[in-house]
Amino acid sequence: MRDEFCHLLRVRYSECDAQKVVFNGRYVDYIDIAVTEFLRVIWGNYDDMLSKGIDSQVVKLSINWKAPAHFDDVIAITVKSIRIGSSSYTLQVDFYNHKTAVDIASAEITYVMVSAGDHKKMEIPKDMRKKLAEGSPGTRIDHAGVDST
Prior knowledge:
Elements: E1 5-10, H1 26-43, H2 46-51, E2 54-65, E3 74-84, E4 88-97, E5 103-115, H3 126-134, E6 140-142
Parallel strand pairs: 1-6
Antiparallel strand pairs: 1-3, 2-5, 3-4, 4-5
């Protein structure tokens, strides 16, 4: 297992395209799922963040594919912070086959911190910045039904 935060996800049949590989658009869903779990681990419940008047929005996303993923594969998705600005942060999201360790894809996603009500850009609070920088190495969320030992 790689040291970063890791989310395990099993590919479902409906996520595959006519070529019998994961449809490229599904990777955005996978990124959202893994990042949501990463942020839940480091920042807590999303509703708690909203109750403090804080939210974030995606402003940039890029994905590079390296190998296909197929139905019933277990994909390991790692997430770590790579840039933290005053109001934005960028996460590195890497995908690899859990069984074979073959790299599947990598992505960078940038968020801007905004106020929850009117979505005005705001500075990342210091406590949240610290937790974002620390990340959650070694944490594994298993939605694939893989033995976690």
